[in-house]
Inverse folding.
């Protein structure tokens, strides 16, 4: 089993090999289902000139927003600026390059990249600034634009459970972008709540097969809530 064991014991080992200029595909949605410890490790490493592909950049002091403070990010591919004032500030001042992408298109860019599909046609964005400079083709009388898929040097995801072979199970809303992101990295690192022995996961319940996953680390999650709403 040792040759297949993908569990690492430190965040340094989990993110080993990350270098300036790399593209990181990050699962999660704002603060939901994000690999908190892996993001903190990237901040600690002070890696620069990064391209980050994720739904959004979290908030000022948590999630991917942490990487904005020391200007580690060169470009963000996202569908939402969100509640992050620093992200908005750096976007408006031209300090960071932002490629806004429709949310479904962003998810499909990740999925297609992981499936080895270099590009695909979608009707989403046709006739808007999203389509500028992109090839247009008509199918059954409807125009579609060509979108290129996305891959990265690293993919970082958050899962509920993993076995030592790297098979992953996501829970509830952490199913957002994590399954697609997990397939699109040359090196995929999963930060998980629980690690079990091989054979303990029901095969039909596995969302991401271990063939896509290179490293697994057990994390301690704060699971911060971005905006709490309660009744009076």
């Amino acid at each position: 089993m040792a040759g297949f064991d993908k569990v690492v014991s430190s965040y340094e080992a989990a993110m080993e090999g990350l270098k300036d200029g790399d593209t990181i595909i990050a699962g999660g949605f704002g603060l939901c289902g994000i690999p908190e410890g892996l993001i903190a490790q990237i901040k600690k490493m002070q890696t620069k000139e990064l391209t980050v592909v994720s739904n959004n950049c979290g908030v000022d002091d948590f999630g991917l927003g942490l990487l904005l403070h020391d200007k580690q990010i060169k470009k963000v591919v996202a569908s939402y600026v969100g509640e992050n004032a620093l992200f908005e500030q750096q976007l408006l001042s031209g300090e960071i390059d932002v490629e806004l992408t429709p949310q479904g298109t962003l998810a499909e860019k990740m999925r297609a990249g992981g499936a080895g599909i270099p590009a695909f046609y979608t009707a989403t964005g046709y006739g808007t600034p999203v389509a500028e400079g992109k090839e247009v083709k008509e199918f059954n009388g409807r125009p579609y634009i060509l979108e290129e898929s996305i891959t990265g040097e690293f993919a970082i995801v958050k899962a509920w459970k993993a076995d030592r072979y790297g098979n992953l199970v996501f829970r509830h809303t952490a199913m957002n972008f994590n399954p697609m992101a997990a397939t699109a990295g040359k090196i995929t690192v999963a930060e998980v709540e629980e690690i079990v022995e091989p054979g303990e996961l029901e095969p039909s319940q596995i969302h991401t097969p271990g063939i896509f996953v290179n490293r697994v680390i057990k994390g301690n999650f704060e699971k911060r809530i971005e905006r709490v709403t309660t009744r009076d």
Q: What stands out?
A: The first strand starts at residue 23 and ends at 26. Residues 103-114 form the longest helix (12 residues). Helices lie at 11-14, 36-45, 66-69, 85-92, 103-114, 178-183.
